[in-house]
Amino acid sequence: MFGSTEAVTVDMVRLALDAASLRQQTIAHNIANVNTPGFAPARVDFEQQMGAARAALDQGQPVTAAMLGGVRPVVMRLAPSVDADRSAMLDLEVADMAQNTVHYQALVKALGKHMSIMSSAVAEGKR
What we know:
The chain is mostly helical. The protein has 4 helices and 2 strands. The protein has a two-stranded antiparallel ribbon.
């Protein structure tokens, strides 16, 4: 049981890091093209796909590898904004990038702590 729980935990964090990385690239692309006429900004769809895992956790059930099987971050194009205020769009994109950066850093820190705990557990068993 421990091994499968460990694998699912690492898989969930890996998926979240992949989504955050893809989101960073997508936001950067949106920022680079904010003044391009007819440009259609994009968003990354990921959190909604984690609904089954979130529901299981809310009910006190374990998350299984099968729940994560089809979960992948996906870039989705939005409708082009014709008359949008470009400075407001830029402000929103920069705010999204800052939020995503903090999220990515939190995931990396949590994964580091998780691995540190696992390392300590393994090292204690060798003494």
